[in-house]
Structure formats: structure tokens, C-alpha cells
Amino acid sequence: MDKRFWICGLAMSVATLLLGFVVHGLLLADDYAPLVGTLLRTPEDAQRLFPWMLLADVLIGFTMTWLYRFGFSEGRSTIGQGLRFGLAVALLASVPMHLIYFAVQPTPAALAVKQVVLDTIRFLLLGVLIAYLQPRRVVL
Q1: Contacts for 34-43 with beta carbons within 8 Å, 24 or more apart?
Q2: Which listed residue, of 17, 25, 84, 125, carries a Cα 20 to 30 Å from 47's Cα?
Q3: 139 in a domain, yes or no?
Q4: What is the reported pTM?
């Protein structure tokens, strides 16, 4: 693992934390509000467990950086590659996760749809970011 990998992984970790906050902390806040204390943790509980959220974002950031090295194709457009990679990650991780949660928890259907759509957009953006950072480049 070279210097560029670590820098890209850190940048991706910060980006997924920020985009996750925009999606789940801002855009879906009103949808989550009625579920706090029943299906979702209280703000106090969530704050106490925030280090686990950070760990999850670091895992997402570095794993996407690592996987992109294997899915990189010479000669394809940067944005096209990023969108393809982001969609693949969303279809592998985020979309199934929300569908499983919908099946096993009393999540409102409208919320589940919003989660799937917004997290797919989130991963498309992360895919484009990692494509532009291109961890396989030799120079920084």
C-alpha cells in the first residue's frame, strides 16, 4: 500500500462521513424523528456509539479505495468509471442492506425508498470521487 492509497482512503473516509451526515442527518432527519426511541436510538445513545459510526466510515473509505484498484480500466472515462463503480458498490452493500432492514424492521416503506435512492446517489458520488483520486496513479 503506497502513500497515495492512504491519502485516498482518508479522503474517501471523510467524504463518506460527510455525505452520510447530509443524507441521514439532514435530508432524512424528519423521516427519522418519529422513530427515535423506538426503532432508532436516542441522540444520547447515538452520540455514545459514534466511534462505531466513524469505524464504519473508515471501513467504507478504505475498502472502496482498495477495491477501485482492481476495478480500474485503462481508456475509460473517469466519470463513467466512477459512476459504474459507485453503482456496483451501492448494489452490493447499501441497497441490499436497506431492503433487509425493511424486511426485518418496521421501517416505513416511504423511508426505505428514500434511503435506497439517497444512499445510491451517495455511493455514485463516492465512486466519482475515487475515480478522480485514482489510487493507481504513480504521482500524487
Answers
A1: 35/107, 35/111, 39/105, 39/106, 39/107
A2: 125
A3: no
A4: 0.90
